[in-house]
Backbone:
């Protein structure tokens, strides 16, 4: 069975993902909009937890 691993990535990676995802927050499809909102929130949480200077 595969195991999950934790990794550290530079803060610009989730920041860039959040910017790319932002366009999907305003689409007409409610399922896409809901998924985009969830991803956006998760990326924001990851950025808030980033170490200073990352």
Residues:
């Amino acid at each position: 069975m595969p195991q999950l691993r934790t990794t550290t990535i530079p803060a610009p990676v989730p920041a860039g993902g959040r910017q790319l995802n932002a366009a999907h927050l305003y689409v007409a499809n409610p399922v896409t909009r809901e998924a985009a909102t969830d991803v956006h929130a998760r990326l924001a949480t990851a950025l808030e937890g980033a170490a200073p200077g990352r």
